[in-house]
């Protein structure tokens, strides 16, 4: 990937075991809700690279991705008290916020960029994602689970999640009915959930 | 009847995957969330799917750009956090909100803090004031909504890498502070100690450039000596920012002498 000067060895955050990091993250967010700046600092280490990664996958433009990442992390600070551990993991909470913000950003600028995106759509995001991933246990697991999906399921998930397309757009890209795409998306996530072992 | 309802529910259920991946339009999202409110089963399914998509996200991790953490930490240091829900208290009304907001305003020690702060920290201070003042006027909920929407826009300017702060005196009294980002083509305007105008008149902000004059809008009524923040976007090369006193419902063109004129 690009060599944009990173001060942090990104691998440290990246290779942390998901479960330990997840548990820890919930604790940090609870502390952040009380205004603990040190805990907020720790959150950058734990989830910052993931936030930036997913935002950049969707938005693609590095400068805009950086802005949205900043907004997301400031939002974590502002709304930490709204995190409810009973309704899911801290990682899911932050990543949901990050993905939603990234998608909102691309949709808001979509009209002007529509042409550009139509061209971009000719690329194959799954391959791109798979090429870009570095070997780590977690990435390997995601790769394996994505590979276990049917082609339409996998394309539906990668186009929607990593590209920020709506199911209607995915349907037209894949040339299948919208009803099919909706169903495949749900089936795919259920399968991924079971494969990744994250079922509640 | 029964069949139709069942098929509607089934249809709503199938949207779960698209919903979790934000792959639905805003109206679809709203419709699905209404369904979700009364469907415990769906809520559980969605929670478990979110864990899976979160892993798709973390698998895409990339090192944070240099300086990002420092910028967000600086902004956080002066950004008020949302309080947790308090079920023992009724929803506060506008009056109560104003009283509470007043405390926050005082604790920010405006304007000394801004005057003393420098660079990004100063920008962040204005952001904090922005969030506070959004809540300080008018009805609580409306202002919260507005504050949230505008504080997002404002945050974009404040956290821009090229954000610069300028302050200057306003003819007739007071000090204006702008934080501008050329890359975002936007600025955030605040003023302190503006001369109070009669109710029939208000301050109007303008962008004056080679292509003509655009009204940014009327400044909101001041509160505790503090006016704004107001965001002005779509800045163009060669623009000046100007301030005039106009009839309360605004003018199409500035009719009175410039009280402030800053080359951007």
Structural commentary:
Chain A has 200 residues and is mainly alpha-helical. Chain A contains 11 helices and no strands. Chain B is α+β, with helices and mostly antiparallel strands. Chain B is 44% helix and 21% strand. At the A-B interface, helix 1, helix 3, helix 4, helix 5 and helix 8 of A face helix 2, helix 4, helix 5 and helix 9 of B.
Key words describing this protein structure:
heterodimer, A: 200 residues, Rna Polymerase Sigma Factor, Chain: A, Arc Repressor Mutant, subunit A, 2 domains, 11 helices, 0% strand, globular, B: alpha+beta, 44% helix, elongated
Strand content of chain B: 15-25%
What CATH architecture of the largest domain in chain A would you give? Answer: Orthogonal Bundle
Number of domains of chain A: 2
* CATH class category of the largest domain in chain A: Mainly Alpha
Number of helices of chain A: 11
Give helix % range of chain A.
over 70%
Write the layout of secondary structure elements.
The complex is a heterodimer of chains A (200) and B (264).
Chain A: H1 10-15, H2 18-33, H3 37-59, H4 62-79, H5 90-108, H6 110-120, H7 125-132, H8 137-147, H9 151-162, H10 167-174, H11 178-196
Helix pairs in contact in A: 2-3, 3-4, 3-5, 4-5, 8-11, 9-10, 9-11, 10-11
Chain B: H1 2-14, H2 16-20, H3 26-37, H4 40-58, H5 68-77, H6 94-107, H7 112-116, H8 119-136, H9 140-158, E1 164-169, E2 175-181, E3 186-192, E4 201-209, E5 212-218, E6 226-233, E7 240-247, E8 260-263
Helix pairs in contact in B: 5-8, 6-8, 8-9
Quick overview:
The complex is a heterodimer of chains A (200) and B (264). Chain A contains 11 helices and no strands.
